[in-house]
User: What shape does this take?
Amino acid sequence: MGLPVYRIVIKDKDLKQMENNIWSDRFFPATLSSGNGSSQPIQIRYRGGHTREYPKKSYEIRTSRATYHFNAEYDDPSLIRNALSFHFFNMIGVPSPTTLHCVLQLNGANQGVYLRIEAVNRTFFRMRKIPVRSIIYAVNDNATFDLNNVSTNTPKTSLFSGYRLIKGTGGDRLRLTRFIRSIHAKRGKALEKYLNGRLHMDNYLRWLSGAVLTGNYDGFRHNYTIFEYQKRKAYGFLPWDYEGTWGRNCYGKEVASNLVSIKGHNKLTGKVLAYSANRQQYKRILEEILAGSFTAQRLMPVVRKMFHQIEEDVYRDPKYKWPLGMFLYEPDVIHAYIENRRRDIRRELQNL
Assistant: This one.
């Protein structure tokens, strides 16, 4: 049995406008139908950064009830790394988007295999019964909790640089900038108390564990969402865009399993792990995950299931970027990464 098929119909003039200005975030009206024969009105636009220039583009689609990202996964030879990562994060207790592999058709033309990803927005948290005060996306390399710009090493004109407010007010924007300023201004016990009050520490260390174990080099500068728990008034974190993981970078190049340090690489993680109590908690979480979730025995059945679900449709994907031999080899790449990463982490744990 093949993957579910989503069919988009959009007026030729609107599609032409999208194609003529790929960097526009303007939405256009269209209809979306699936296998049950029903169709619904939608709003559609391109999404992503440099990937908008690819022949296989990604889309954001809004329905009356939900928002989805249809990701082309163009740079990932396996087409499953995002889905596998979010599955893994959910396994270790970090709320993460649900995913569904599918085939996308646009005005009758097969666009190939896509990954439908649940958007992280108000609905995401409402479905999980997590009351949140604000939702903030980390959208570029400046989202490192640093006082300086990454590219120029000069002071930021705004400490909110690198972030985008999705839910909340100007007060929520100001509160994050105060948090960033405070973690640099405070020292010693005062900083430790502040971090443990303003961060949901278990969530943060589990998110850090997931980013480190999956090897997402970009996961500390952007590719994450901050949310503020309404009752605790503490920040939580969850992952976004984990295509460059499990032994390959975000362009599909095979990389060493030890590319990402156990300590990650942003200013906030450095501040958190400066304290022994947090390092010990982090160690306990990593050891728990290594003993349970991050094993070939637990993960490879998931890999093989996803692989076999999409295999037939990958062969028919007119825009698949890689030689098919690479696709067939991908479960082995992921398996080797898991085994090697386990050894890396056990070695680094001894010096944490």
Summary: DSSP finds ten helices and eleven strands in the chain. The two ends are 48 Å apart (CA to CA). The CA atoms of residues 94 and 206 lie 7 Å apart. The first strand starts at residue 5 and ends at 9.
